[in-house]
Predict the structure.
Amino acid sequence: MKKIKFTINDDTLFIGYKIENNTFRNLSNTNIISKDDLIFDLKYYRNNISLIAGFLNVMLKTDNVTHAIIEQEELILSSLELLNHLPSITELVIKPDIAIDFDTHLAILKNDTLKVINCYTIPTYLLERIDTTKSVKIETRNEVFFISNFLRKNRLTSYSDVFYKRKILIDYDLQDIDFKDLDQFLSINTYLKTIYFEYINLDLIKNVIRFLRENKKKNISIEIKGTPNNLSYFNALEEYVKKSKYIKKNKISFKIDYTRDYKLDNFLKLLNFASLKYILVVIIISCLLGYGINQYDLYKSSVQIDAITDDIADLLEEFEHLDSEDTIPDQNTETPEPTPPTTTPAPPPSNYVSPYYKNYAKVISVLKETNRDTVGWVTVNNTTVNYPVVQSTNNSYYLNHDFNKHSNSLGWIFMDYRNNATDLDQNTVIYGHNIAKDKLMFGNLSATLNPNWYTKASNQYITFNTSSKDMQWRIFSIYKIAATNDYLYNTFETQEDFLTFANKIKSRSIYDFGVEIKENDKLLTLSTCQNSGKSRLVVHAVLVQ
């Protein structure tokens, strides 16, 4: 029998089904109302939404809950009705990978408290109506597979990217497939203000103007990079603009962006040799200054990261004193070995006693007070990799934000947004920048490529724990590979698909660790860039305890 279940985890309300077999239960006991469980018969729930909201509001206020996740498609409409009575919920994730339909769109329009809604996809006309009538931002998860260079160069990877894009770049002569995607982009987009041309010819400009006219675009600024080749079309372009009624009527403006190189090239013609030497000195100084600014930014970012790690250590040291009696192992007692499967030897005991050794549920709970995105802690032996792991709703935020959610070019260690941090998928992926100079983030992960490192038994185990599980993982594959995403799958349709995937990544390893992967195993993947992003360093491990 299906019942609706409400679960509160940190700042998030989960709305989903609880399926029970009532053969051995008292059938009159249909509803459960407690701190741990809020379960209702579906018929009762649908007839008493406002009453149930009263129970929830008390719990949400106590736990400062601001997010909600709807887990089943059948519960979307009733849950949106419920959210009308839950004013503390401002962000919503509609988890099923389905398109928002007209009824769901109407339910969204009735809500006045939601600020962000994350869904799989939404038709253009419904998104436009929500955008013009509500102050809620719609985020979509479905990716646009790159068909043209136009989409790739402008990083239009999802429907919401297309809808909200304000500036696009054109730096080559568009082909038919590019123009098709440009036309589709203009038909969806609402916020476009600027088209920047790094390359032009007259036919290209005319075609772009034609698509703007067909899609009834107004108040668009067309900026043209001032290169000698582009400026050779200036006279013809000026005549075309004067003759176009659409351009004048719809306030399509043109601007030449004279580049520094162009200005310098033309200015040098008027200079003597002495002046030229002066300009060259200025250029050299400017380059050195730019390099210095970049190095200072890296230094400042690394200082901020060091300060954050110190703050985390201080916070958990205080936490350690509170829990030390019942959580730190006795130093006079030999550390017990984990008990992995019979085919896998246990990792050797360690002499290191960490304040985070014992109770990751409490550790992560403490860290969530600083950053609610905290989902776990990862440690790689004999490297500097020893960080809390965070997870956002995308894989870009923590590339340039630190644990305190401040802008930082070094980013932070984060889990793939597609992974389930509570019930781990068959492949959990964790990313981090390769800051080799200061050995920050995954900057010291390259140590795993050293035979002196990976042949040492104690180094072949990774600790990755979450609030619900303390886990050890045994490394079975380490390799470098050209930039690809074929090792980033997190779920698999069949066990055969999983084993095929596991055998592929295992065959890439620089060393045979002698680990067998079985069809129900769970994997952990650590991934970082190398060679300025041209290649990847990847470490795979299998859950053994």
Q: What stands out?
A: The longest strand covers residues 472-482. The CA atoms of residues 358 and 531 lie 38 Å apart. The mean pLDDT is 82. The radius of gyration is 28 Å.
